[in-house]
């Protein structure tokens, strides 16, 4: 299906990743001609800023950077990393703070530092009047607790790569957050088939998290933003509505965040 008349916003893709070294421009052109009108780029750490900003400069009307320190990159030197984040926020207009949050899947060594980094960046979001793109893995409750107890009540954003339960989805929505739906929606046992039929379309945005989490039939391979149409179609099937409606509303939801 050709969505070229529709504008899809890719809300989360690491297109600066080295896996695109050989064919980055080609990969991006493919995305743009498949209907992707904007690609939002989450930052990871100071080492990813250079490549991300180069793309923002090369594609100023299509590729928009976020600024933040990813929880998996929170280590001993996190205060130095946060100073770099803050410095960039003072000199460039980013689309959001991201990706930030809690990750208790791989390593819990720096859980305290992760909390501190997340809360600090929530404050930066308030100061710069930006929304936040949340990475939460095996840490939904912890993340929600931090938001509820400490963050500005006006804080809003996206739970990127949402894969939780229906109760968790409802909690995120109650906190004024959107659910970022990606390739997991196409996975057998991904769990989103049990959630999406009960969620209002105004609460979701589309993303790939490229180069990770490619949708079926590319599962396990390199992901890229042109696969968003596969994700949109699967969301439409699960919600039993036309794919055009999914694209139109999720794009509107994304744009509303940035107002
Ligand atoms: Zn990501």
TrEMBL record:
It holds the Pfam family TatD_DNase. Gene3D superfamilies: Metal-dependent hydrolases. GO terms for molecular function: hydrolase activity. InterPro entries: Metal_Hydrolase (IPR032466), TatD-like (IPR001130), TatD/YcfH-like (IPR015991). SUPFAM superfamilies: Metallo-dependent hydrolases (SSF51556). Keywords: Hydrolase, Metal-binding. CDD domains: TatD_DNAse. NCBIfam families: YchF/TatD family DNA exonuclease (TIGR00010). This is TatD family hydrolase. It comes from Arcicella lustrica.
């Amino acid at each position: 299906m050709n969505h070229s008349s529709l504008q899809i916003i890719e809300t989360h893709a690491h297109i600066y990743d080295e896996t695109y070294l050989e064919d980055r421009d080609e990969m991006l052109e493919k995305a743009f001609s498949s209907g992707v009108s904007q690609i939002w780029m989450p930052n990871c750490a100071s080492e990813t800023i250079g490549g991300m900003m180069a793309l923002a400069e090369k594609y100023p009307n299509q590729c928009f950077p976020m600024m933040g320190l990813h929880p998996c990159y929170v280590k001993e030197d996190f205060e130095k990393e946060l100073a770099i984040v803050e410095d960039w926020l003072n000199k460039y207009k980013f689309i959001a703070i991201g990706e930030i949050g809690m990750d208790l899947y791989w390593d819990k060594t720096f859980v305290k530092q992760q909390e501190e980094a997340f809360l600090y960046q929530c404050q930066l979001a308030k100061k710069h009047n930006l929304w936040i793109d949340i990475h939460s893995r095996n840490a939904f409750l912890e993340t929600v607790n931090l938001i509820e107890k400490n963050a500005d009540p006006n804080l809003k954003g996206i739970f990127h790569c949402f894969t939780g339960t229906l109760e968790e989805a409802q909690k995120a929505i109650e906190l004024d957050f959107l659910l970022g739906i990606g390739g997991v929606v196409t996975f057998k046992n991904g769990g989103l088939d049990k959630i999406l039929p009960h969620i209002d379309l105004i609460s979701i945005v589309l993303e790939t998290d490229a180069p990770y989490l490619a949708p079926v039939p590319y599962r396990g391979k390199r992901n890229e933003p042109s696969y968003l149409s596969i994700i949109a179609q699967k969301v439409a099937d699960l919600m039993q509505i036309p794919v055009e409606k999914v694209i139109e509303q999720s794009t509107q939801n994304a744009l509303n965040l940035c107002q």
